[in-house]
Amino acid sequence: MKIILLGAPGSGKGTQAVLVSKELGLPHISTGEIFRDNIKRGTEIGLKIKAVIDGGDLCPDDLTIEIVRNRLKEEDCKNGYLLDGFPRNIAQATALDKTDAPDKVIELVIPLEKLEHRLTGRRGCTKCKSSFHIDFIGNRKDCPHCGGELGIREDDNAESVKERLAVYKTQTAPLIEYYAKQGKLFPIDADLPIEEVFASILKVVR
User: Fold this and answer.
1) Residues facing residue 124 across a β-bridge
2) In 65, 156, 191, 199, which residue has its Cα 20 to 30 A from 12's Cα atom?
3) Which position among 2, 71, 88, 123 bears the catalytic label?
4) 153 is catalytic
5) CB contact at 8 A, 39 and 54
6) Is 123 a residue of the active site?
């Protein structure tokens, strides 16, 4: 099974991807995680990506497509994949169709006006990588799971969040029509508890 999770920043793609990946035994391929790993290691690609992200923009198509194509060639993808954060526009979707087209595209639907609060209120553990929200943990500075330090992702500041949502609306939203015409799009209400969203996704992919 080849699955894409499609949705605006803050719609819960990362959370659901982990759950679905574990349940179906598919490799979870997150372009965001690949980018952050390169940035952390200070690779040549990482430095280019950091400059782009710091400006609130998305990575160039050619660079992103190359990274994903290389990842899909790895052994663990022979029985399928779960893509999170790719494709982000029609050009990337077309490139993926020519390389390894998806079977189903799950669209996580949530009103854009709610996403800014979701994103700016996110806190991540620097140690165990767990994610939380200030609505549930308040001003807590330590991780409830491991006691590690909680921090804010650089691109979760208010200015970057507004830019990311604007870019999504203009560049990524057209993918909804693109995959709907192929008969591969399955909208899911993502403004629900995590377990309910997960159950809805499983109904679609099984």
Assistant:
1) 131, 151
2) 65
3) 88
4) yes
5) no
6) no
